[in-house]
Design goal:
With 312 residues, the chain is mainly α. It has two domains: 11-21 and 38-170, Orthogonal Bundle (Cytochrome Bc1 Complex, Chain D, domain 2), CATH 1.10.760; 171-312, Cytochrome c-like domain (Cytochrome Bc1 Complex, Chain D, domain 2, Orthogonal Bundle), CATH 1.10.760.10. The chain contains eleven helices and six strands. The chain has helices at 17-20, 48-62, 85-88, 96-100, 116-126, 144-156, 183-193, 195-198, 232-242, 259-269, 284-291; strands spanning 105-107, 112-114, 205-206, 212-214, 301-302, 305-306. The termini are close together. 47% of the residues are buried. Bound molecules: heme C (HEC) (2 copies). One heme C (HEC) binds at residues 24-25, 61, 64, 78, 80, 82-84, 94, 98-99, 119-120, 123-124, 127-128, 149, 169-170, 223, 227-229, 234. Residues 181-273 form the Cytochrome c domain.
């Protein structure tokens, strides 16, 4: 086990207030006639210093685990593009061209102006588990990495209207089925339709030299207990139009699973241990009370184990 993983969870406590208070935004409107924003192609990549920044930012987004600077802030086995398909461009897979123009945004719910800078740092903190990374946390505000990543996002949104919730932004939401969800049904779906790529134990697949082939979904190399994806509703929305890869299609809004199946398999995926919530309050009950008042299994008993132990 790497030394960084032995840090007690309490040492990971998030000290940056703005990062503890990330919130979900309202859903984007439906596209009219299935037409989404026409993002630029690779042949439109600019030249010069700005072009360099865009390329570096795109590389950091797609191959985060390989990018020399970005990888220092990754404490698990994830790339940004694992959850933002099409290299961050696919509609209904939380595309960066949809995100760019809605920040900075004041949110009454967390009572401050949310900037893109802080949104990206939040993704490092939770989805990429930056607390267990070589750098020990997310990139510093105004660092070259954040400039590059924002250059990529800005470029991807060229010509898009500012301040508008564009069709295709974010993930689609999938309403909770009337009879709730079943973790055991989810297990059968997972084994039949997901395990072939993500492995039976959720650990994904990596080459011998550590290159990711399929991302891990739970365990020490997955997103942590504070990430948006640990919410059963959020992951169900992602899974419904994005997975199984090659069968669902976010841009065509084509699903391979029913709403019920998406909720069931999302619940199964999120009924396993993963790295601790960086907003750890000292024990599971207090952390649950302060941060987990939503559809998730943190501090819930599943298969005889109370979840939220973390993997450190
Ligand atoms: C494990 C899956 C996952 C990974 C990995 C991930 N994200 Fe996200 N991201 C999400 C989810 C889910 C949301 C939706 C908001 C929420 O509930 O957190 C989101 C939202 C965002 C948003 C806001 C989108 C909007 O329209 O408001 C941005 C920007 C973003 N992510 C950037 C990144 C960057 C940059 C990285 C890599 C450093 C990254 N994400 C890695 C799952 C992920
Ligand atoms: C054919 C292989 C394949 C199958 C089958 C598959 N996935 Fe995936 N999955 C992927 C790949 C590849 C990615 C990353 C996509 C990218 O980087 O563009 C991914 C990403 C994800 C993510 C993003 C979260 C993360 O932490 O990286 C989730 C959640 C997920 N898959 C769940 C599922 C579920 C649930 C099923 C079964 C219903 C499933 N997948 C079936 C290949 C697959």
């Amino acid at each position: 086990m790497a030394a960084a993983l032995l840090i007690p969870a309490s040492a990971l406590a998030q000290d940056d207030e703005t990062l503890t208070k990330q919130v979900e935004l309202e859903e984007a409107p439906e596209a009219k006639g299935e037409s989404y924003f026409d993002y630029p192609g690779m042949d439109e990549l600019p030249e010069g210093e700005f072009g360099e920044a865009v390329r570096s930012g795109m590389e950091a987004f797609v191959n985060t685990l390989q990018h020399p600077e970005a990888k220092r802030h990754v404490g698990n086995g994830q790339n940004c593009a694992n959850c933002h398909l099409g290299g961050g461009m696919a509609a209904n897979s939380s595309p960066m061209w949809g995100a760019w123009g809605i920040y900075p945004k004041y949110r009454g719910k967390n009572d401050h102006v949310n900037t893109m800078d802080e949104r990206i740092r939040g993704c490092f903190t939770y989805s990429m588990n930056a607390g267990a990374s070589e750098a020990g946390g997310p990139p510093k505000p105004d660092s070259q990495l954040l400039k590059d990543m924002q250059s990529f996002m800005f470029w991807s949104a060229r010509g898009a209207p500012l301040g508008e919730n564009l069709p295709g932004r974010g993930y689609r939401s999938v309403e909770k089925p009337e009879d709730g969800y079943s973790i055991s049904r989810g297990k059968s779906i997972y084994e039949a339709q997901c395990a072939v790529c993500h492995s039976g134990d959720g650990s994904g697949k990596f080459t011998a030299d550590g290159k990711q082939i399929f991302p891990p979904l739970w365990g020490e190399k997955a997103y942590n207990w504070g990430a948006g994806m640990h919410r059963i509703n959020t992951a169900a929305g992602f899974i419904k139009y994005n997975m199984p890869l090659g069968k669902a299609n976010p841009v065509k809004k084509h699903a391979a699973l029913s709403d019920q199946e998406a909720w069931d398999v999302s619940a199964y995926m999120n009924s396993h241990e993963r790295p601790q919530d960086p907003r750890w309050e000292g024990d599971k009950a207090s952390t649950a009370e302060k941060w987990h008042d939503h559809a998730c299994l943190y501090n819930q008993e599943v298969r005889g184990h109370t979840l939220g132990e973390g993997t450190q």
